[in-house]
Amino acid sequence: MEVVPSAQQMRAMWCREMEWLLYVSDSMVELMPSIQQFPRGGTYEVMATRSWLDLHINLPYPLGMSSGRPSIRQEEKWWLPNPKVPPKGLSVDARKRLQQRRDCTN
């Protein structure tokens, strides 16, 4: 018998992990030039901080929270990436590059 956390527990764990991730990422900012106007009428160009836009875009959505995704990968090495191949297969050049990378790693 396998003990699996409920969907509510999974969501709570995911939210907590995302809060930890975002807490660290709050200090990851990029400097963007902006115009600042002062009360006496002067305008200055200053560097303002802005959080990375791609940081929020690339956050993973928890598995099992969306209807289109499988709940959990039931594999021994679940952390390895799941390759996605186009329906027509790989091109000849892509196969050669992949084979060369495989040969170089062995």
Give the arrangement of secondary structure elements.
Elements: H1 7-25, E1 29-37, E2 43-51, H2 53-57, H3 92-105
Antiparallel strand pairs: 1-2
Protein traits:
3 helices; two-stranded antiparallel sheet; 106 residues; flat; 36% helix; single chain; alpha+beta
Provide a concise account of the structure shown.
The protein is an alpha+beta fold and 106 residues long. The protein contains three helices and two strands; from the N terminus they run αββαα. The chain is flat, with a radius of gyration of 23 Å.
What does this structure look like?
With about 110 residues, the protein is α+β, with helices and mostly antiparallel strands. The protein has a domain at about 1-70. The chain has helices spanning about 5-25, 55, 90-105, and strands at about 30-35, 45-50. A two-stranded antiparallel sheet has the order 1-2. Strand 1 (about 30-35) and strand 2 form a beta hairpin. The longest helix has 19 residues, at about 5-25. The chain starts with 6 loop residues before the first helix and ends with a helix.
